[in-house]
Amino acid sequence: MANVLLTQKCVRSCPYCFAKKHMSSSEPDDIIRWEDLIYITDLLDSSGQRHMSLLGGEPTLHPHFIDFVIYLLERNFRITVFTSGIMSEKMLSEASMHLSNVSPERLNFVCNLNDPAKSPFSEVESIKKFMKIFGHLTSPGFNIYQPHFEMEFLIDYINNFGLKRNIRLGLAHPIPGVKNSYVKIDEMPKMAERLISYLPVLDSFRIKPGFDCGFPMCLFTDEQLGVIFKVIGPQGMKFGCGPAIDIGPDMKVWSCFPLSNFHKKSIYDFNSMDELMQYYQNLHAKIRIEAGGLYEKCDDCKFRQERLCTGGCLAHTLSQLHDEERVRYEEVYI
Amino acid sequence: MMQHIIVCPFNQGLIDRLHSRQLVIQDNNCDRIHDITRVGNRQNRIHSIFLNLREPFGAVPFHESWKGIPLNISCPEMGFFKDVAKKLPLIKQLKLRVFLSSDHKNTYTQLRILSSLGIPCGIMFGELPVHWEALNDLMVYSVYGKAKHASIEPFQYIISHYRSVGRTDFSSVYFDNPMQFLHCSAEGKIALSAKDLAAGNFISENIDDLDRIQELPAFAERKNEWQKFFLKNSICASCPGWRVCLGKYAVQAETDPGCKQFYADTMDAADFYRMKNEKEQEVWR
């Protein structure tokens, strides 16, 4: 799978934005061309992969967004669109006409939702309009960037707009060399406690949250892990961090947004997605040799050795290395 | 002696006079496809129907009943992708090749889209100068593309007919190679190419000459016309791409030598294709 950035433009300015570093160093008018989308599709296809995520910025701002989705469906791809849900009436009506009847097996929106109490009214209204039409195809996404947060609004949205009953829970990560909001390592236990307190409520509404990358396992006590197991199930208990593979409109590739400035390459340097993935996996492994994870105890943690946990987000580790004397493998520095 | 395929307009009287011949029937009206098929198959055999349309490809009113009819459709452009997408399930069932004009700025992209969706297609060279770099990119996609896609002409013709010695004339893609096709006017006058036909430059004004065309001096002259480039010491005579281009862009080449790189790269691609096929065959030896 790959995440393809259709455009660098975004309609929001979230304090935790992982893409901040990447966006600040890119041309906002840079949008992906048809030829490049076909190249990426072919590369995935020839690598035996049939799933593509469309990102931005805000991907629906791309003038060919709907055409691209239809094209990828014709190429038998499964598509996940990461959107804010904020779009013009014209785009919403066109998207509704062409995409609302696509099977949820083939098209899925992940709508990144911010607390409406902290968002402008017009933004909230626009998102509601989107959810009204595309609720059946949409999973809510929620990014945690401070230890104290509210999730009740997600339950309301899911019930009111018939969203899918799972929540993609993201943990905001530091972007080495950039100021963004994220949960500091020492604030993580507090954040974990808050998160766990929501699980019984979510469970009572049959809503399953799923962890995105970067949650370390030891963030939770054994008792909390038991609650997670009960509510989410074993398949949802992911404590990993690995290359996501993001592809920009300029055909540059990188491991993931927080590491967008780290060993950026051209997609043309690789003959297949497997080769590309292998390159970043090797790089991750090399850094993990230098610094196992968020905590010193990660170095000889048996769960890390058994690959049940990767020791948190690599961007945290790189941020720690960022200011130190350059005495390690050259590859680990940005 | 090889019998030529006759390229002619849809004219019932003419088609009856062309008794027992293989025909490429040209027209510009989709509504006449069934009439063309009926008349063309009565005493002749239809090689294919060539529809020269003014509307974009996406606006063509494709119909279930066109299944099995060999169609070439020439359009100025693809049109809206959404329009094409709606018709894709039917289009994929037709025996169709679509040609888009090189004069439209998005043609190179649109051909890539159509090919990647499994629709055989080709570029129809128009009146404006060719954008060689874009054409080269399209050729690279057509030959080296990583995923399965439909053929794009004239690249497919070139790579599959190319030999390491001798000439490869891709005019056949456009039914315009006088060694294989002859053009006939509604009045039964015969020309060696579409351009000659349009200019009224006929090799014979008697339809009965069709079987003896190859005996006419003008035919032999056209057959050896390529030699003139060397006698005149034209810029094309020393071009590495000559064996495929055959001087088709001689006028443009004087001011824009972009064709030279394109044809050289196309020949490399043809060599690559030939070697790849030979390698694949080796497995079975």
The top-level CATH class of chain A is Alpha Beta
Helix amount of chain B: 25-40%
Number of strands of chain A: 10
Order of helices and strands of chain A: EHHEHEHEHEHEHEHEEEHHH
Gist of the model:
Chain A has 334 residues and is an alpha/beta fold.
Question: What does this molecule look like?
Answer:
Helices cover 37% and strands 13% of the residues of chain A. Chain A is α/β, with parallel strands linked by helices and 334 residues long. In chain A, strand 2, helix 3 and strand 3 (78-83) form a beta-alpha-beta unit. In chain A, helix 7 runs parallel beside helix 8 (222-232). The relative contact order of chain A is 0.12. Chain B has 285 residues and is α/β, with parallel strands linked by helices. Chain B has two domains: 5-161, no CATH class; 224-285, no CATH class. Chain B is built from twelve helices and nine strands. A nine-stranded mixed beta sheet of chain B has the order 7-6-5-4-3-2-1-8-9. Chains A and B meet through helix 2 and helix 3 of A and helix 3 and helix 4 of B.
Task: Outline the fold blueprint.
The complex is a heterodimer of chains A (334) and B (285).
Chain A (H helix, E strand, L loop, with lengths): L1 E4 L14 H5 L9 H13 L4 E5 L9 H10 L3 E6 L5 H11 L7 E6 L8 H14 L3 E7 L7 H10 L4 E6 L16 H17 L3 E4 L10 H11 L13 E2 L4 E3 L10 E2 L6 H18 L11 H4 L8 H9 L12
Helix pairs in contact in A: 7-8
Chain B lengths: L4 E5 L2 H6 L4 E6 L5 H11 L1 E8 L18 E5 L5 H11 L4 E6 L5 H10 L4 E4 L7 H13 L7 E2 L1 H7 L19 E4 L5 E2 L2 H6 L17 H7 L4 H4 L10 H4 L4 H6 L2 H25 L3
Parallel strand pairs in B: 1-2, 1-8, 2-3, 3-4, 4-5, 5-6, 6-7
Antiparallel strand pairs in B: 8-9
Helix pairs in contact in B: 4-5, 5-12, 6-12
